[in-house]
Design goal:
Structural class: alpha/beta
Strand order of the largest sheet: 7-6-5-8-9
Distance between the termini: 16 Å
Number of strands: 9
């Protein structure tokens, strides 16, 4: 690593729009070049520790394959098999891992712990998911929209369902990519207005709607997520609250004719979304899943301060 400041990728709000758009452009270029040559040596001899405190499919596979295709190596770890799971402090863990690896991707619910890890690490730290935000997912989502419909600038993006980490990152993305974020969430589940108030104070276009139907009206993109996330214990109550927010063909018909549907997966079919929508022509959920690979390659290339011409 050079003497330049360490490039952490922790939260979309912490990075400026130019940086995020640069990462996005890199991701698009990487995906295009992959059709000709799958593997490069751009990150040759670099080791990325992949730390998982919670189960994962897309994050785990996409980062593992991504670093391998960039010429580096991955080291898979879980909190349970590390001393972190037996009480070693976050600062000590950060200092030790920094002596062994060149980058740390971590997926754990405790957002403060991830921030603390980055504070004491001397290598880049990437937030693979916390209870607060999911920035890697939204980079893949924005990439997917751009592939299908072009820039999100000036568009209306609608979120229906639960208030969670994916929504937070979408709200942050509204500032960086200059679109209107329309939100329909039951009042009881709107538990945190700090981010929303901060973004609104900076002029970010966030609209709250009383119903899913109001939110979907003439929208360019409709997004939802599972009604019960990791750590939620009130499943039955949440299902009762969220039934009116299901994404079905009736709701999609209220959006623009060329509107897309997104879901970060895994989906609970028949709950937050029907089979007809998720398997329908407007759904791009599996393109989203694939683009986790390409978007995260772009993030890692940026974290290592590399350019595609360096390979």
């Amino acid at each position: 690593m050079s003497n330049d400041p360490i490039r952490h990728f922790l939260d979309l709000e912490q990075l400026d729009a130019t940086t995020l758009k640069t990462i996005m452009a890199t991701a698009h270029e990487i995906k295009t070049k992959r059709k000709v040559e799958r593997k490069t040596d751009l990150l040759a001899d670099q080791v990325v520790a992949l730390v998982f405190d919670k189960p994962s499919t897309r994050t785990r596979v996409s980062f593992d394959v991504g670093i391998r295709e960039l010429g580096g190596e991955s080291l898979m770890l879980t909190g349970a098999e590390m001393q972190l799971g037996r009480g070693e402090s976050i600062p000590d863990t950060a200092r030790v891992l920094s002596r062994f690896v060149d980058c740390i991707m971590i997926r754990m619910l405790d957002n403060e712990a991830v921030e603390e890890l980055a504070k004491y690490a001397s290598v880049p730290v990437i937030n693979g998911l916390t209870y607060f935000s999911h920035p890697c997912q939204i980079m893949a989502d924005v990439m997917t929209y751009e592939e299908h419909r072009g820039s999100l600038e000036g568009k209306v993006v609608t979120w229906v369902g639960d208030y969670n980490n994916v929504l937070v990152s979408w709200l942050q993305a509204a500032e960086k990519f200059d679109f209107t974020m329309r939100v329909a969430v039951p009042d009881e589940l709107m538990t945190d207005f700090e981010v929303i108030n901060r973004l609104r104070d900076r002029g970010v276009k966030i609209e709250f709607c009383d119903t899913a139907e109001d939110a979907a009206d003439q929208s360019d993109l409709i997004i939802t997520d599972t009604w019960v996330s990791m750590g939620d214990e009130d499943a039955e109550h949440r299902h009762n609250l969220l039934k009116p927010y299901q994404v079905n063909t009736r709701l999609m018909a209220l959006a623009k004719d060329d509107a897309l549907f997104m879901h970060c997966l895994p989906a609970h079919r028949g709950e937050e979304v029907t089979d007809e929508v998720i398997d329908g022509p407007q759904s791009v959920v599996f393109d989203e899943a694939e683009n986790r690979l390409h978007a995260q390659k772009g993030i890692m290339v940026w974290c290592f301060n590399k350019a595609l011409g360096d390979s």
